[in-house]
Amino acid sequence: MKVLFILFSLFINNSFIISTDTECPIVPTSLGDRRKDKNKFRIIQYNVEWLFIDYNSQSKCPGSGCTWVNQTEAQTHMDYVATIVNELEPDLINFCEIEGCDELNILSEYLDGSYAPYLKQGTDTATGQNVGMLTRVDPITNLYRTENRYSYPIPGSNCGYTGSGTTGVSKHYITEFNINNNKIALIAAHFIAIPTDTQRCAQREAQASVLQEVIMNYINTNYEIIMLGDFNDYDSEILDMNSNKPKSKVLDILKGIAGEFANKYELFNIAETITQNERYSDWYNSDNNCNTNTNNDFSMIDHILVTDYIKKNIINSSIYHGYKEFCGKYNSDHFPVIIDLLIS
Known about the structure:
Layout: E1 9-12, E2 15-18, E3 40-51, H1 71-88, E4 92-98, H2 101-108, E5 116-119, E6 130-135, E7 150-152, E8 165-167, E9 172-179, E10 182-190, H3 198-220, E11 224-230, H4 250-255, E12 268-269, E13 282-283, E14 298-299, E15 302-306, H5 308-312, E16 314-319, E17 337-342
Parallel strand pairs: 3-4, 10-11
Antiparallel strand pairs: 1-2, 3-17, 4-6, 5-6, 7-8, 9-10, 11-15, 12-15, 13-14, 16-17
């Protein structure tokens, strides 16, 4: 399947003709559960760093606007991602920085045939990035989004931003599962980047506040919650390997510690079940020197937050560090975050 990308883009006079990336949010009439072990459920959060095969003219990716400068590099990256997914064998894997359903379908061709693709198109037109999943268990509800917006800075913000504005969550989806008679809401998101930028810090707090209302609504209807994604921020309680501390309250808002619905519910960061020296999910060439690679280049900004019932049913948790990060690599600049649940 390594030549499938040719179906999606053609070169004519050194320019691209591209197909329109389609969303795939609709669940089938006949729902399936294709897990190998029906009592276990492996969930993975994975930012796959510009998993683009179709050319996106806004972001110029593959090309000068992203990591993969041409179609060959983009396809090589796809090969590397597929190798990792095959090795880890998730039952459900959420991807950040994926372009669309074309890429999900191409990736699924590398796998064992048990995965269905789901993606709800977002509104990040600048990058063209989305969040989507491959899953062996079909959701019971079509993927949907909230278009609510929130003003920033939020009351009590410590981000230091003195302007004002409103924002929504450009990259996210919401859906529901019934797994062994357990009602589970899955909320996946990719928040705006750069943890230390004051305006983006304030925007992320507002994005978290938008989704906090979604979490609260599901809590009120007795759903278990799995909230996962690249939040581009640190947890103030569960410190990563470098003890990075956030300027923002993003994780505190999502966990129910802060925000409009503070102390009305509680989510737990599964990172608390992982030893601190293993808590890193992202690589960043912090000194812009490709000849150095230190612990300062790593942090944890990808998270899985869960309700107490889900937490109590975690039998294994880890962050996969099975490849090295360096300038010129073809693996992602993030690592997969993994939980194994025993749900009977």
